[in-house]
Amino acid sequence: MSQNLIKNAAGRAVPTEVNGKPAIPFQGVGKYRPTGHKYGPPISTCADYPADGDKRQPDLRAALIAAGLRDGMTISTHHHFRNGDLIANQIFDIAAELGVKDLVWFPSASFPCHEPIIKHLESGVVHHIEGSMNGPLGKFASEGKMRGLGVLRSHGGRYQAVQDGEVRIDIAVIAAPTADFFGNANGLTGPSACGLLGFALADSQYADKVIVATDNLVPFPCTPWQIQGNNVDFVVEMDQIGVPEKIVSGTTKITKSPDRLYIAELTAKFCDAAGLIRDGFSFQAGAGGTSLAIGNYFGQIMREKGIKASFARGGSNKYLVEMLEEGLVGAILDGQTFDLDGVRSMRENPLHVNTSPFTSYNYHGKGNFASMLDIAILGATEVDVNFNGNVVTHSDGYLLHGIGGWQNALFGKTVILPIPLFRDRIPVIRDEVTTLVGPGELIDVIVTERGIAINPLRQDLIDATKNSGLPINSIHELKEEAERICGKPQPPALADDIIAVIKWVDGTVIDAVKAVNNE
Amino acid sequence: MSQNLIKNAAGRAVPTEVNGKPAIPFQGVGKYRPTGHKYGPPISTCADYPADGDKRQPDLRAALIAAGLRDGMTISTHHHFRNGDLIANQIFDIAAELGVKDLVWFPSASFPCHEPIIKHLESGVVHHIEGSMNGPLGKFASEGKMRGLGVLRSHGGRYQAVQDGEVRIDIAVIAAPTADFFGNANGLTGPSACGLLGFALADSQYADKVIVATDNLVPFPCTPWQIQGNNVDFVVEMDQIGVPEKIVSGTTKITKSPDRLYIAELTAKFCDAAGLIRDGFSFQAGAGGTSLAIGNYFGQIMREKGIKASFARGGSNKYLVEMLEEGLVGAILDGQTFDLDGVRSMRENPLHVNTSPFTSYNYHGKGNFASMLDIAILGATEVDVNFNGNVVTHSDGYLLHGIGGWQNALFGKTVILPIPLFRDRIPVIRDEVTTLVGPGELIDVIVTERGIAINPLRQDLIDATKNSGLPINSIHELKEEAERICGKPQPPALADDIIAVIKWVDGTVIDAVKAVNNE
User: Fold this and answer.
1) Fewest CB atoms within 10 A around its CB: which of A58, A325, B276, B455?
2) ipTM of the complex
């Protein structure tokens, strides 16, 4: 496919049209001003719904037919079941049986368990995927095999796109660990409990037709209702909607790698030296092994100082829950629960609050929670010498990861990326990121096992940590150190064809992803 | 003012235009089919809101100015503070000081405490009121003194009108018993605690600008957030936003009137005889003295039978809370708390769930809770021999009451009106209601101290209670009995001018209210 490209405000060549619709190039952080009104879905009437509230359909197939499934529709799913989802594949298997073509799949994220969708991409049942493609689907797209362009959005960007009417969902299928026949649903209980359903909120509010699929139907009223039955058209009871052990892990483990533990310790020491850990501060760490260790170090520092955090943002896990229960954090504002302790805590503790991309991340709202965080700890596949970040492609050009909440969390007051200097002998700090996902002006600190680099824009942090004794270097020094060890990395072998675009939090296109040249 | 009238499906002459906008005449229950899309408010961007989340303005005046208050705007408030509200009057006092004219006040209800608004209606600051006018404002309108037409909607109809874009709120002012600086708010704690804020939900979701006013500012995050800060533009801290003893009563009392107790007992016995009180049934009673007594009788019957209700709809009160705590009802789905026990229970008990007109009553949704109720107990100022009901005007024609959730609750499976045969020697059962608010086809049973009348449409109830020994009469017999005692009532002395319209739950006009002829 040939594409008209334009250079955006970040200097990246991006298409002016994406899947047949005009696209706005990135204009700089906070520069694009939206106009117009939020999308309003069609007005329903209770006259069309059963007065007794019972919206059950015999099975998913019947519900999809009742919802009017047909060629070219946009079908959405959520990813709270992560790699344990059993619903998305069934939807497109049914669509294939029904002879439906050219669907757009609009998941909040896709996982390796969705590899079977490849056959539907190949056969024409699915035209393309808008949403992160973790693993095999990303590889498939990177090889130039997907008909349409992939569109990658952050969690907040996905809410924004739906709210603003950029993406109109025809049918949303919401897998719900617990639901009643009216469609009230939550993720707190049942065999597939995942804690919350925030990633499906936009879908429930804005999709034309909403199907709730559950393997734990309870009598009305299902409370609390994280998804409101008043937005739901059909309810389907199924034997199993997810694989519990792949939805949440029974245990979440702190890293045992000495390098990573050292990075975690250095990150916590940096925050302390910079004066960021003070009474009433707030942080978001995440659930990777390094992040967990950082959270633990934060806890130690708080105990020593006799202070507490006002709130922490989850991905929640056992360690964060322990801090809440110990009183070290005032509240967990949680976007997804990563282990069973997180699920339990959200079910039992009113201070463990379920949030959504609307509350936390939507940039086209009247503020959001992300910008209120004192410390945001994030990862990256690559960072460049201008502090630009990449989280979606590897240095070989393969699109293998989603954005998640990463772009949204960049709006935190201090954004720190604890990353190894190299992975598999490939340096992580580059002259230029393969794919630009986050502008360097929003990334404040890089912490590696060989030193810390502070963005020159953050003179306050440079001053505060000047005499801290911490190993503070320039980012160029860190890059050179990595290249001394691993050698100068080769640029990826890329074709000219664009296979996906990366949206910024405001719906503009910040970069494009090229196909990997396999020849 | 001269008005073009048309006869609607209920045979009532209604205007085809209301306050300059076309109005659709009532077409029958479930007959009007909405078209088009829900209203979408303007798209915001976080770039316009403080990154640290602090949206405070120095005072209400500053917030109203910041919100762009100007001539002709529609300003909304909620009525969770009932007759203890201290906010609405201040808004219009400020508007008067600023020289603003022709505002539309769109309260979810107004009360006698809002009598000071009359001077703003007279001076031109307020053009007219859309919303119930309990007491003095209703009298003012009935005397033909309001410039525009009053528009009365049910709680669900108000949500529908806002959702569908019939009413566009320019500025919503939400009085909040507890809030943080970001605008997250709830009604659970603080000196003005009112339990919940569901009547302000539509306002928060759809108004262009939203101001939260609180006398209990708490550190972020205010949880739970019944109103989401992400919908809020400005926050104002005030000394006092409500008069606690007028917001909730410390005690709610069961009637001591022998007649009313008898009506209550008869109502409960009827429900029992008709087989409506069975394990897992649901009911909505209300908070009047008679309703409380009916709830109590329901409790006695459940205890005797060893059964429980699946849920009860509130207006909650001490007695309903006791039933919840005793396990006699599985959950309270509550639209407003009527006493301090209701507030406490909602704060503490996860099974005491806060609802909104969206969940419970909106007819332009994908179903609502109202139609799922087995028994709805409601009041009326008048009923006619065709079982039509009036709740807004007295038999002298004065518009003195709002619709509340009455029209919405008519969709319950069995609707019972326990009413006295006469009030102040004026018969309640008439040849024709002064104002048609609810069509007779939705009203099933009238219970008076002199007998019970069953709507002939409900042959099932007639059959079930045939041999019950209960005093079952025709509605004509009841009417004749009242007239034997009180004499045939005179029709009200009405002028030709229409002063208000009554909207049905779907936004159509079911009746018009005429001015009272005082000459």
Assistant:
1) A58
2) 0.96
